[in-house]
Amino acid sequence: MNAAHFTYRVTWSPEDAEYVGTVAEFPSLSWLDADERAAFDGIRGLAAQVVQDLREAGEEVPEALADRSYSGKFQVRTTPARHRELAIAAAEAGVSMNRLVNDRLASDR
Fold first, then answer.
1. Can you tell me the distance from the alpha carbon of 37 to that of 72, in angstroms, rounded to the nearest whole number?
2. Total domain count, the chain
3. DSSP code, position 21
4. Distance in angstroms (rounded) separating the CA atoms of residues 107 and 101
5. Same domain for 61 and 102?
6. Do 62 and 23 lie in a common domain?
7. 61-104 tens-digit pLDDT
8. Is residue 109 very low, low, confident or very high in pLDDT (cuts 50, 70, 90)?
9. Secondary structure letter of residue 25 according to DSSP
10. Which one, out of 39, 41, 48, 70, has a CA that is 20 to 30 A from the CA of 87?
């Protein structure tokens, strides 16, 4: 397991008036710094330390999201009314419901 493969993000926090670095594989970890690069370096260093601590304790280290395999399929449960709305929208657009939902997911980034 390589901590460099984890999914890191640095965003501005108006509440803290600093940049906050986070790592998706460890949602409870964060690093604040006035400097954007320092926030990134800080969260990467913290994650590497946590990985080392987990290994030394014989505990499981989460697999990096980037290293996982994805099938491209997932199942979503919805209400019958929403299902009907999506089926109608797909029919009106002349596309499959899968295509409609995929396009809507992609546009919601």
1. 33
2. 2
3. E
4. 10
5. no
6. yes
7. 999 999 999 999 999 999 999 999 999 999 999 999 999 999 99
8. low
9. T
10. 70
Average pLDDT over residues 25-54: 97
pTM: 0.75
What is the DSSP-derived secondary structure letter of residue 4?
A: G
Beta bridge partners of 12: 19
For residue 33, the enclosing domain spans: 3-66
Maximum CA extent, the chain:
58
CB 50 within 8 A of CB 6: no
What lies within 8 Å, CB to CB, of 34 at 6+ separation is 18, 19
Which run of H or of E encompasses 104?
Answer: helix 97-107
**One-letter identity of residue 20:** V
CA 95 to chain centre: 28
The CA-atom distances, in angstroms, between 66 and each of 5, 24, 50 are 6, 11, 18
Same domain, 36 and 10: yes
Helix (H, G, I), strand (E, B) or coil at 70: coil
- Whether residue 6 is predicted with pLDDT greater than 90 in this model: the reply is yes
